[in-house]
Protein: 3-dehydroquinate synthase
Amino acid sequence: MDGAKVHSSGDGRSKCREMDVLDRDRPASRIFVGSSLTEISGLLDSYPAVFAVYDRNAGDRIADFNNFVSAAGIRSMYPLAATEDTKTIETVVDICRWLLENGADRDALLLGIGGGIITDIAGFAASIYKRGIRFAYVPTTLLAQVDASIGGKTGVNMSCYKNMLGTIRQPDFTWICPEVLSALSYRDFLSGAAEMLKTFIISDNGDYVSAVSYFKSLYKALRDENISAAGDCAIVMERGHCLDADKCVGRDGSPACRQKKDIRGDGSIYTVDEDENSADETERQNRFSAFVEGNLRQLGDLVAAAAAVKADIVSQDQFETGCRRMLNLGHTFAHAMEWYVHSRQEDADETGGNISCLRAQCSRLAMSHGAAVSVGIILATRLSEAVGVAPAGLAGKLRADFMACGLPVDCPFPLRELAGAMARDKKAEGGKIHFILIRSIGETMEYDMTAEEAVAFLAGE
Structure:
């Protein structure tokens, strides 16, 4: 990779790697893959004042978070809930007001500590406060470490549409510490798996095979006949009022509003009593943390490889006019699904919950970005076969791989319902969308068509 350099010392836990995202107009944005959060303090000595926007749950999850904050010498901290509802222009204005009230000058540094939502918000706020101050990221989720924190894209949502307001500006640096990932929930960790697999589908069959092997082993370690299947899938029906109570009750006959409902990869729904399965979830989480900690070298290698791929692509095409578009594989479908979910939430809020959310028949639904990307990649591969770009059987192979990794593979919504959202995608130009299709693992291409044409191809029309 151009501009990348790797430094290694000691065992897998103490290995430190550094790579650069090259920028013609500014100094290179540095990316470090290290073994401890506290090591970041040496990078912050040159900044007169450091402020931080952070995921309010990070302090509870990460063991050495307080030591990290102390070592970093952060002047003031701004906590945020890491939800899509937080990702608004109003939040950005509040952060800018907080920076102003706390005396942040043009030479200050703003740290974004958390997952992709936090880094998107912090980067956007820094890029517009006083016409731009320096910023850096400490990503604490797998999705952020391999994707969201790299490349300079910042932004917030507008209405139901993802990242409609934003900028492209590189952070001074990104500090990646794979060791903190063992503190995530399994579902949050799995949300990053699809983004990592996407990166390797674009770039390298060998890394793809290694990543699939890792996630398959993790999924197998968590599967046990004595443990409920609850939580395997990253598409979740949150607590809400069920409109079809006769068909949706708990095993004890309790109302559906007390149940957690999951959609499996095949689109079927199962209902789980949360109290009855709390022991299962605890055991699952313990197994997950033990697996990550016991296989940290392999995970660190995969994270570093994925980060290097994205850094290389962004160095060649920072403003997404060419090869960087390949990173959008699966995202046109993913963003449409996320829009659909969010729009149904707003409709439910406005009507007091008196609406049907398709298969789920439930007024509150959440879909993680990683789950949407997973399904989106499979849809993109099916589309690739349908238009004759990919060989027959590729979609089946990826589907089997993703399912073996515990990832969802089928869209739980009618595709025609998503066409309108796809037509409003940021990548749409002249009425057509720049779909990213797959020729083979390691080779992707751009293919322009309308949303209606894509849906028709997928439907076999």
Summary: The radius of gyration is 22 Å. The first strand starts at residue 5 and ends at 7.
